[in-house]
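New to this. Help decode both lines:
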Amino acid sequence: MNGPSAKVFVVDDDVTVCVALSRLMRAAGLHVETFGTATELLSADRLKDADCVVLDVHLPDLSGLELQAKLTELGLELPIVFITGRGDIPMSVRAMKAGALEFLTKPFDDQQLLDAIEQGVARCQNAKRQQETLLGLQRQYQSLTPRERQVFTLVVRGLLNKQIAGELGTAEKTVKIHRGQVMRKMQAASLPDLVRMAEKLVIALP
């Protein structure tokens, strides 16, 4: 599926269900951890490492829907696949509106579950890669001096060196040096590359 690095957390108070799902997912090459209650999941210090959560709607403490809301409050936008033996349409609509990937009623088709998990893992890992890229850009931007940041902003607005020099009240030669430093520190291969970086960093463009 997505390799052994993909982590799926299963939350269900039925031990037999946890065992069966663990076997199914491990056979598909997934790393699986199981929890019997919402509290157990919330206390897991590895929660941020999960790529997908398979969540029973009916749990002994918080309900699956309440746990979904709690994860969102904590800023953990994890892909969730709901499973239930006693679901209804309003419940499934509420779960899907809150961002659930799938709402499956037991007994469900194993492949349908695996397909939903695969979708969730792919989405989560892509979001993590994007976040890592953004953090890298932010570190590069922080390495710029205050003047280099000014030049960065004016460059991505499309100003020429001469115009930037006029804006900043400095020599064109100095601007050229700062511009070169910006390109080097940001690891930008071209002006369009730098503009795309600015968009990701939400630096003001015209």
Notes: DSSP finds nine helices and five strands in the chain. The CA atoms of residues 104 and 115 lie 12 Å apart. The mean pLDDT is 89.
